[in-house]
From TrEMBL:
Compartments it resides in: Membrane
Database matches in SUPFAM superfamilies: L domain-like
Keyword Protein transport appears in the UniProt entry: no
This protein's name: Leucine-rich repeat-containing N-terminal plant-type domain-containing protein
Pfam family, one: LRRNT_2
Major place of residence: membrane
GO cellular component, one term: membrane
Keywords carried by this UniProt record: Glycoprotein, Leucine-rich repeat, Membrane, Repeat, Signal
Leucine-rich repeat-containing N-terminal plant-type domain location: 25-63
The organism of origin for this protein: Psophocarpus tetragonolobus
Residues in the signal sequence: 1-20
Length: 335
């Protein structure tokens, strides 16, 4: 076969491969630009220009189905190693069909959240956690009405909690743990939509009393632990609610724990290191799914209710209270 024939065969094969490629050319160009903006990390070595980005071989890239024109709809950068600091690639905003964006476990991701993310008008799930991003939660996110979940845990974000977060019409989950947020929980946080289920604000620098409006929420999970909050948090409880996890540890809350109603779904209750008083609720014995309980370091008194799952907890769960007694602590003294 002559050289010209060989060249023709190569060109035909290349053209046929290009025609059979599912990846949208604009999406592919954007992905390769993102890779460049991240310094061409080794984790993305599978992003090769002459291959199809929708063939499930490009690390972290997921495309839609045939009916969705095979556009890139999920990008997962979890654990991508960057030897040097880089900001979040601004080119991410050029993936118009993106629904899910994960930038997790990347400590060398720095600077603020880029405004180009606001161009992702189909984005539903945004997770940027365990990075070194800083600054405030940007206002432009308030215009992203498709957002359903936000997870900005374990970063260096600061400032006040945005009062506009409940205005997101489809949001059901917000996690902002382990940052540097300060000030009070906004009054507006009681106006999250029906179906809002998860609010996690632990390990920040939040102060003051929690707004009474939070009592209107039926949260599956609420975590306000490791802050400097005070006052009455009993409004987070209720026998008609569907809470399975309540974490309020390491604050300055003060209320009568014995008077709270308990969700029948409760699995985890941690109110340790506060100023709670009263007796333990007798309803604890009827909780069939209770897996974890910690009421230590409070001002609780009276006999520990016996029965149900209560027999499975060690004395450390009740330690350092004013006058709790009964198994697994020493017996109560007769009057």
């Amino acid at each position: 076969m002559s050289h010209s024939s060989i060249l023709l065969v190569v060109l035909v094969l290349s053209f046929s491969a290009a025609l059979s490629e599912l990846c949208n050319p604009q999406d592919k160009q954007t992905l390769l630009q993102i890779k460049k903006e991240l310094g061409n990390p080794s984790n993305l070595s599978s992003w090769i220009p002459h291959t199809d980005c929708c063939n499930n071989n490009w690390e972290g890239v997921t495309c839609g189905s045939e009916t969705e024109s095979y556009r890139v709809y999920e990008l997962d950068f979890s654990d991508v190693y960057l030897p040097k600091p880089h900001p979040i690639p601004p080119s991410i905003g050029n993936l118009p069909y993106l629904k899910t964006l994960y930038i997790n476990m990347m400590p060398n991701i720095v600077d603020t959240i880029p405004s180009t993310i606001a161009k992702l008008t189909n984005l539903r799930h945004l997770s940027i956690k365990y990075t070194s991003i800083s600054g405030q939660i940007p206002l432009f996110l308030s215009q992203m009405k498709t957002l359903e979940s936000i997870n900005f845990s374990n970063n260096k974000l600061s400032g006040k909690l945005p009062a506009w977060l409940p205005s997101l019409p489809n949001i059901y989950s917000i996690s902002l743990d382990s940052n540097r947020f300060s000030g009070a929980i906004p009054y507006s946080f009681g106006s999250f939509r029906e179906g809002f289920a998860l609010l996690s604000l632990s390990d920040n620098r939040l102060t003051g009393k929690i707004p009474a409006t939070l009592g209107k929420l039926d949260l599956k999970l609420v975590d306000l632990s490791k802050n400097m909050l005070e006052g009455d948090a009993s409004l987070l409880f209720g026998s008609a609610k569907h809470s399975d996890t309540i974490r309020l540890a390491n604050n300055m809350f003060a209320f009568d724990l014995g008077k709270v109603g308990l969700s029948k779904n409760l699995m985890i209750l941690d109110v340790s290191h506060n100023r709670l008083y009263g007796m333990l609720p007798k309803g604890l014995t009827s909780l069939k799914d209770l897996l974890s309980l910690d009421v230590s370091y409070n001002n609780l008194c009276g006999e520990i209710p016996q029965g149900g799952k209560m027999k499975g907890f060690y004395d450390s769960a009740y330690a350092h209270n004013k006058c709790l007694c009964g198994s697994p602590l020493p017996s109560c003294k007769p009057f």
